[in-house]
Specification:
Layout: E1 2-9, H1 15-22, E2 32-33, H2 50-53, E3 55-61, H3 65-76, E4 84-88, E5 92-93, H4 95-102, H5 106-112, E6 123-124, E7 128-131, H6 132-141, H7 151-166, H8 173-178
Antiparallel strand pairs: 1-3, 1-4, 2-3, 5-7, 6-7
Length: 184
């Protein structure tokens, strides 16, 4: 199954990191992409949006979202200085992605998409996209149990934030063990 998500970085990708990224065999398949800031941002008439500069877009094949995030983070760590601190899911989804996220099968969601009240597509550029929040609200309205945040996303988000918080912190192994965390 292919998972589409964003990995949030501690800081934007530098030109040196972009060069290393582009020459890393584990990143050569194009499953993870970055946005690089312009060389002279002050020379541009519009301010550069910092969000894409801190986000790597990922399309990873894996059995679960958590497996996909772990694989992306493993690859990202191969580039010196790149540090994942969070994960996000896109606001717009295809029907297949909505089926993944909702836990319904693609066939079942496809049938529901023809029902009155199903949200209209929000963007069409060769692919039909839907606003995830509106799809989730529709599904909840018809009695489907759709989590606000997928469990795998919550686990990945907490793990990445914890790893970032622990990076460089001097926490005694006994305290980590008392908190139920591995000490290695």
């Amino acid at each position: 199954m292919e998972w589409n998500f964003g990995v949030l970085l501690k800081q934007p990708v530098t030109h040196e990191q972009a060069d290393a990224f582009d020459h890393c065999d584990a990143l050569a398949d194009g499953a993870i992409s970055y946005t690089l800031a312009p060389d002279a941002p002050d020379a541009h008439p519009h301010a550069v949006d910092p969000v894409p500069l801190h986000t790597l877009n990922c399309d990873i094949e894996a059995p679960t979202l958590l497996d996909a995030v772990a694989e992306a983070v493993r690859r990202i760590r191969l580039v010196d200085g790149l540090r994942a601190v969070g994960v996000s899911l896109p606001a717009t989804v295809t029907l297949d992605e909505a089926a993944q996220r909702s836990g319904l099968g693609a066939r079942a969601l496809g049938a529901l998409s023809r029902e009155p009240g199903f949200p209209d597509p929000v963007a069409v550029e060769g692919t039909v996209f839907y606003d995830w929040d509106r799809v989730a609200a529709f599904l909840r309205d018809i009695g489907e149990s759709v989590p606000d945040v997928p469990r795998d996303l919550a686990i990945a988000e907490h793990a990445l934030r914890l790893a970032d918080a622990l990076d460089g912190a001097e926490v005694q192994p006994g305290l980590l063990k008392a908190l139920g965390l591995p000490t290695t």
